[in-house]
Design a protein that fits this description.
By secondary structure, the protein is mainly alpha-helical. It is built from 15 helices and four strands. 76% of the residues lie in helices and 3% in strands.
C-alpha cells in the first residue's frame, strides 16, 4: 500500500518535477557552453564549432525528413549554396557577416523551394532520387560556373568581422556559431507548437488525410523544403567562415549521407535527436582516428583505409539503429531519464 501511495504522489508531482529538472538541465547546459571555450584548446574548439554547424544542418533536415516525412539527400548541396553565397557576399560586397548569413539562408531557401516542387507528385524513394539529381546539378554548377564559383580552385572567404576585429580563431567563431545554433534550434522547437508545425506533422502521418482536412500539401511541402534549405544555408555560411575557403569538393554527396545518418541515429522527428545525432556523428571520425592511431604501429596500412572506413561506419550505424533502436539516441536518453525517475518504486 505504501508503494502504491508513493506512486500516486509521484504521478501527481510528475509535471512539476519534469519542469524543474528540464530547467536545471538547461541552466547546466548553458553554463557548460559558456565555460567550455575557456577550458578547451583550439582543436576541441574547432570540433565544437563543427558540432554547432552540424546541429544547424541536421535540425534543418529533421524538419523536412523527421517532421514532414519528405526524404532528402541534398542537404550538403544546399550547404554549398549557402557557403558560396557567403563567400561571394563577403568578398564582393563586404557586408556584415550576419547580413551575409541571413542572405545565404534566403538564397538557399529559394533553391530548396525549387527542388521541392516535385514533392507534390513523388515521395519516398522517388523524391530521394530527385534530391540526389538536384545535388549533382548543384555540384556541376559549383564546378563549372567559374566566373562566379571559381571552378575547382574555389573562392577564398575573408574573415568575419565584429566591432572592427577579425574573427579568425576557433575561440572567436565559437561565440558566433554556438548562439546562432542555439537560436535556430529553439526556433525549430517552437515551430512545432504552431499551426505550420502541426501541418508538417499531419503531412508526415498521412498526407491524404491532411489534404482532406484542408491542408494545402504543395504549400506546406514547399515551406518545409524552404525551411530545411534555410537551415542548411546558414550552416554552409558558418562553415565558410570557419574554413575560409569554399570549393566544389567541400560538400560531396557523402556529406548528405552524414546528415541523414545523424537524423536517424539521433532520432527522427525530435529536436533533441538532431542535437545528439549531430554531436555523435561528428565525433565518430575522431574516434576512428584515435583507433587508427593506436593500431597503426602494428598495421601501417590502417591510415590508408581510414576514409572508406568512415563511410562504412556511417552505413553500419544507420542499419544498426534502424534495426535495434529506430527512435535513436533521443529515445535512449528518455529511457535513461525515465529509469532514474522511477527507480525508487521499482519492485
Amino acid at each position: 500500500m505504501r508503494i502504491g501511495a508513493l506512486k500516486e504522489d509521484y504521478g501527481a508531482d510528475q509535471a512539476l518535477f519534469d519542469t524543474v529538472v528540464q530547467r536545471r538541465w538547461a541552466l547546466a547546459g548553458v553554463a557548460a557552453l559558456v565555460l567550455f571555450p575557456f577550458a578547451a584548446d583550439d582543436y576541441w574548439l574547432f570540433l565544437a564549432c563543427m558540432v554547432g554547424i552540424h546541429v544547424v544542418a541536421t535540425t534543418g533536415l529533421n524538419i523536412l525528413t523527421g517532421y514532414t516525412g519528405l526524404l532528402s539527400l541534398g542537404q550538403a548541396a544546399f550547404m554549398g549554396v549557402g557557403a558560396y553565397t557567403v563567400a561571394l557576399a563577403e568578398a564582393r560586397l563586404a557586408t556584415p557577416f550576419w547580413v551575409n548569413l541571413a542572405f545565404a539562408g534566403l538564397v538557399t531557401a529559394a533553391v530548396g523551394v525549387a527542388v521541392g516542387v516535385p514533392s507534390l507528385r513523388v515521395k519516398g524513394l522517388y523524391l530521394a532520387i530527385a534530391t540526389i539529381a538536384a545535388s549533382f546539378i548543384l555540384h556541376f554548377v559549383f564546378q563549372n560556373w567559374t566566373s562566379v564559383t571559381g571552378g575547382i580552385r574555389g573562392v577564398n572567404v575573408p574573415p568575419a568581422r565584429f566591432l572592427h576585429a577579425d574573427l579568425v580563431r576557433p575561440f572567436d567563431l565559437y561565440w558566433v556559431i554556438t548562439p546562432i545554433a542555439a537560436i535556430l534550434v529553439l526556433a525549430a522547437a517552437n515551430l512545432f507548437r504552431t499551426r505550420i508545425g502541426r501541418a508538417f506533422i499531419a503531412i508526415r502521418d498521412r498526407d491524404i488525410s491532411a489534404e482532406v482536412l484542408g491542408i494545402p500539401l504543395l504549400r506546406y511541402k514547399l515551406m518545409s523544403f524552404g525551411l530545411s534549405a534555410f537551415y542548411a544555408g546558414i550552416a554552409g555560411g558558418l562553415w565558410a567562415y570557419l574554413f575560409r575557403v569554399v570549393t566544389p569538393e567541400s560538400f560531396p554527396f557523402v556529406y548528405s549521407i552524414f546528415f541523414l545518418a545523424a537524423v536517424i541515429v539521433g532520432g527522427m522527428g525530435t529536436i533533441l535527436g538532431g542535437i545528439l545525432g549531430a554531436a555523435f556523428m561528428t565525433m565518430v571520425p575522431e574516434l576512428l582516428k584515435l583507433i587508427v592511431g593506436l593500431v597503426s604501429p602494428w598495421f601501417p596500412e590502417a591510415v590508408a583505409i581510414l576514409s572508406p572506413m568512415r563511410t562504412i561506419v556511417f552505413g553500419l550505424l544507420i542499419i544498426g539503429f534502424l534495426i535495434f533502436e529506430p527512435h535513436g539516441l533521443a529515445e535512449i536518453w528518455r529511457r535513461i531519464r525515465r529509469f532514474f525517475h522511477l527507480w525508487p518504486f521499482r519492485t
